[in-house]
Structures are given as C-alpha cells and as structure tokens.
Amino acid sequence: MTIQAATTRFLRYLRAERNVSPHTLDAYASDLAQFGEFLAADELAWRQTDRYTLRRYVVHLQAAGAARASIARKLACLRSFFRYAQREAEVVRNPAQHVLTPRRGERLPNALTVHEMAGLLAAPDVTTAVGRRDRAILELLYAAGLRVSELVALDFNGIDWGRAEARIWGKGNKERIVVLGELAIIALKTYIAHARPELAGQKSSGALFIHRRGGRLSDRSVRILVSDYAQRAGITRPISPHTLRHTFATHLLDGGADLRVVQELLGHANLATTQLYTHISQQQARRIYLAAHPRAQPTKAKEDEE
To answer: Does residue 277 have an active-site annotation?
Structure first.
C-alpha cells in the first residue's frame, strides 16, 4: 500500500469515527503529503519509517525554516497516522511515539567552508613556538573533531604515532579512538620537536598542549586563540573550538562518509545528534546547485536565452 492510499484510509477513519473537522483533515492531508515527498526523495517506503527517519525529517523541516509550532503539529499528525496504522496491523510499532518536538531555539550547527578552514589553519605564525603549538591545536581540532575539553585533557602519551590515532576520554568518561590525518601528525611532530621543549623549560608535564610556563593549557585559552586566529583569517562571525568540530563532521559528510562512522568519530551516543550535520551538507549542495546550474533560477535561465 502506498502512503497516498494509507493517507486516504486514515483520513476516512478520522472523518467517520473521530468526527475531525474539515480544517484538521486538510492540515493532516497536507502534512502527510509533505512527509510522503520527503520519503520519496530518500527512496523509502512509508512502512520503513523508524524514529531515525523521523528525527531526520525534523531536521529537514528546521532547515526549511518551519516554525516550532508547525513542526509540533506535523509530528502530532504522524503520531496519529502511525498509531492508526499500528492498530490496522500495517506497521508493527509506532515510530513517532517517542520523537520529541525540538527545543525552542535549537539551531543547526555552524560550520566553516573549506576555504575558511584553510585560512584559519594558515593563520598562526609557525616561526614561533606558540605559533607551532597553535597550528597543531587547530589541525587536531579539525582532523579529529575533538571537543575542547578532550583536547586539553590529552596527555603526551595519548597519541599512537604508529597508527596515527589518539585515545580520547569524552562525555560520561567514555573512551573512543580518533584517527589523525597526515597533516595533523606533521603539525604535532613539529610542535613536539621544535616548540614544546621551549614552552616547557625546566618544568615536566604530561600534558600534550602546554602554555608558556609549562603547565597544561586551559580550555579558555584554546577558545581565545581560536577566536583570535579566526579574526586574523578574516572570518567575521563568532568562531569557537566547537565550530571546528562542526566543520569536521560537515566536511566528512560532504566527502561521502557514512553517518554512523561520523557518529563514532564524534563520540555521539545518539545518531539523531549526528544527523543534524546531514542538512548542513544538503544546504551546501543546494547553494552550489542554485549558483551553478544555468536553469536553477528564472533570472539565470532568461539570461542564457538572450
């Protein structure tokens, strides 16, 4: 049964047995048609819907600019629709039952473009010890998608140089292994060989990243240096270490990485959190299409015909 046929049966049930108003019926018909279009774009049958599909749909609605109240209504419609389908034995369970309306003010992650990221990485003065340290910090934040708390907690012996990996202790004291790219490894080795000894002086510390007096660098210091380098790179909007984590995830997905792999690398307990990044990639694809395709917009098409 198609979702259109299932919708017709559902609306007939609402009209006959629940005495639902014509206005609500029209709204439900519109909401279910929109959800059907979303499923069709992903080549999914409506019976395949699970809670992850619905969470991704919520992110899709947010990216399209839907108001919180509108999203709440659409979710209420889907809960009712799948409850009816479950009663009719069309589905085993109601996937919408535990999908919550987004919190007020929830926003999509802010990520840098590849060009902006390259400018940020080039901002530190690598002729100085502090500049070499800071280049290594920026490379590591971007290469591994670390939280700032994870970065500053890294110890000198936390890097597996042979495997180009780092052992991270994340939220809830959960351990994960992150992969380090070649450029991050080069920046780290340069920092350790030519900058860290100068910063450490006579002080011995197990911390990987240290300040001028040899002690462990604080997360506040990292936040300040990231913001400062962003300004030097000509990035005018507010940038934090977490922006680089967003950028890491977005660029991986842009490059074709599997969502669950990105979830593992980020240390997300919930896939729905990682799914927020899928729409950053889709928005970027849409911008590129609208800018590049000769018939994407009426004005461009008209110019091409002249």
So the answer is: yes
Domains of the chain: 3-87 (1.10.150.130), 114-289 (1.10.443.10)
List, for residues 250-261, the tens digit of each pLDDT value: 888 777 777 777
Return contacts of 32-37, CB within 8 angstroms, 24+ apart: 32/3, 32/7, 32/77, 32/78, 32/81, 33/4, 33/7, 34/74, 35/3, 35/74, 35/78, 36/3, 36/4, 36/7
What are 73's two structure tokens? 């209504």
Q: Reply yes or no on whether 171 is catalytic.
A: yes
Catalytic residue at 79? no
In terms of C-beta density within 10 A (0-12 exposed, 13-18 middle, 19 or more buried), how is residue 300 classed? middle
Q: Is 74 marked active-site?
A: no
Residue at 229: amino acid letter: Y
- In 10 A of CB 130, how many CB atoms? 16
Nearest to 25 by CA among 38, 42, 13, 37: 13
Q: Of 171, 194, 220, 293, which residue is the catalytic one?
A: 171
Sorted by sequence, the CB contacts under 8 Å of residue 112 that are 6+ apart come out as 120, 235, 239, 243, 244, 247
Q: Catalytic annotation on 260?
A: no
Q: Which of 147, 196, 246, 251 is catalytic?
A: 147
Q: Determine which one of 68, 211, 242, 300 is catalytic.
A: 242
Q: Per residue in 184-216, pLDDT tens?
A: 999 999 999 999 999 998 888 889 999 999 999
